[in-house]
Amino acid sequence: TQFMSYSETLPTDANVPSKKSNRTLIAIIFVAVFPVVAAYFVYFTGIGVPENTVNNGKLLTNAVNVSDLLSNQQAEMLQSINSDRKWRILLPVSADCDTSCQANLYTTRQVHVLLGEKSLRVERYAVNISGEKGREYLASIAEQHPGLAAIDVERSRWFKWLANSNTDMDWSLQNYYLLVDQQGFAMMVYTDDIHGNLLKKDLKRALKYSIDYQ
């Protein structure tokens, strides 16, 4: 009669620490990553946000990607969107930039400065929709707005791109600027009646609940 030894009938403990270590590692990764993912999801979808907590800007019905707006001539900005992963403010500017338009430029400049060290994660872009005259105007205010980047976009192309957002707003009748997320999606609009402190609150929350790629 042959008898099995205990080593043959009982499971060895060799794999037990390995399985336990794997479970511990998975748990650690979940605990570290889940809050970031959940916060990002809540911020961009609004699901789970308390009713008394709202964004100060107006969410676009459909977020539109800046890469769909740009042409090959804006290759530098396209590359920046794909690599830098910063938040961006787009300000449409025409040659006849009135006091309201100028106020938006000033407001976003001040908010950018007030972000302090976090300002490195945000860029401001003036979108010139007036051709040569628009470029002349932006050149005239360059000293007042250091760090303000600029791109040229045909007026018709700009409004066609905005129309894809399906947002209930007459884009041609008021001044505004757009907040663009780290993936290049314009997802919120601010009209000239929104105070700079409200933009700053939204930006601080966006920076807090998004990944710093720098």
Topology record:
Elements: H1 6-9, H2 15-45, E1 58-65, H3 75-83, E2 87-93, H4 99-114, E3 122-128, H5 131-140, E4 149-152, H6 155-163, E5 176-180, E6 185-191, H7 196-208
State the gist of this model.
The chain is α/β, with parallel strands linked by helices and 214 residues long.
Number of extended strands: 6
What's the helical proportion of residues?
A: 40-55%
Dominant shape = elongated
The secondary-structure element order is: HHEHEHEHEHEEH
Question: What is the count of helical runs?
Answer: 7
Intertermini distance = 71 Å
Radius of gyration: 25 Å
- Strand % is 15-25%
Structural class based on helices, strands and sheet pairing: alpha/beta
Residue windows where pLDDT falls under 50 for at least 5 positions = 1-7, 42-46, 49-53
Notable traits:
6 strands; 43% helix; 6-stranded mixed sheet; alpha/beta; disordered N terminus; elongated; 214 residues
Describe the structure.
The protein has helices at residues 6-9, 15-45, 75-83, 99-114, 131-140, 155-163, 196-208, and strands spanning 58-65, 87-93, 122-128, 149-152, 176-180, 185-191. With 214 residues, the chain is α/β, with parallel strands linked by helices. It has a six-stranded mixed beta sheet with strand order 1-6-5-2-3-4, with helices on both faces. Helix 5 links the parallel strand 3 and strand 4 (149-152). The radius of gyration is 25 Å and the shape is elongated. Residues 1-7, 42-46 and 49-53 have low confidence and may be disordered.
